[in-house]
Amino acid sequence: KFFGQLEEMLLQNSFGKRLCMMLCAKVEKWLYLIQIFPFNLPSMLEHDMPAAPLWDSVSRQFVGLMSVTDFIDILRHYHRRGIAMDDLSARTIGEVMSDVDGRRLQHFTFQGTAVDNDVFASIEILKQNNHRFLPIIPPNESRVLSIMSYYDVLHYLVEQFREQRKLFEDSIFDLGIGTYGEDCLTVATTATLAEVLDILERADVSAIPVVDENGRVIDLYSRSDITFLATATDAQSVINNLGISIKELLAARHAEVDIKDRLHTCSVRASLQSVFELFSEIGFRRLVAVDEISGRCMGVITARDLILYFCQ
Length: 312
What we know:
Elements: H1 2-11, H2 16-25, E1 33-34, H3 42-46, E2 51-56, E3 61-67, H4 68-80, H5 85-89, H6 93-98, E4 113-114, H7 119-129, E5 133-137, E6 146-149, H8 150-161, E7 179-180, E8 187-188, H9 193-203, E9 207-211, E10 217-222, H10 227-230, H11 235-241, H12 246-253, E11 265-266, H13 272-282, E12 286-290, E13 297-302, H14 303-310
Parallel strand pairs: 1-2, 4-5, 8-9, 11-12
Antiparallel strand pairs: 2-3, 5-6, 7-13, 9-10, 12-13
Helix pairs in contact: 8-14
């Protein structure tokens, strides 16, 4: 019944295309990164942007998308190669991207969707390319109107269907939404930042639950967390910060974390309706399913998991 309603909305052209229009309407100005710009992060942080389109001024076209996570991964990659941070900061974005031994961007090709395209087709682009962000572009123009994520789609979906309670009575576990068991990664508070970032990069996940000595989930660390950069005083201190423990890092940034990236938990028996209600109340990029008695991590449910379930 639920999927039939989604299909009906799509055929009526009310669900898919409206979201793209809404996302574009709320963005007045978008930041582009040009390849001749220095390789640094401040401009993205100043605009509170998780990712920015990359523009090649020679070919006069977009050539990729750079995220905060990309910046952190590239910084660590150069450090492992023994290249000084001062040297890296002196390079342009184009030089970093053309380095044959460099770290490839997550969005190393530019994949966009037209503003009048429906969201189901846009989600398919995200899924096929394993991308987290999708630029929305006007027809026959070289500019970006907005950038869509799974979070944006989930936000709209919740607003449309949160009152349809009978459609969402099954538990998220029974519906197969999320990652559970041995596939669900955790890290101890004693792990260093460098170790945690290595785990996140190898597994290609955006965040990981942090557990205490008893295995109880106490926090969540996001791969795009820039606390270790923001607290650094110079290039060398950035490298030094990679050696601090996750416990120290979480204590330094806890009060400033966006509510969407904070730890939010639920039971594995939580219904899809209750997850929708929680998202509507506080918003989240991911939920950690915990054992109600021990507090141990049982699974992780992301906005991407929820959207792909609805669009299967």
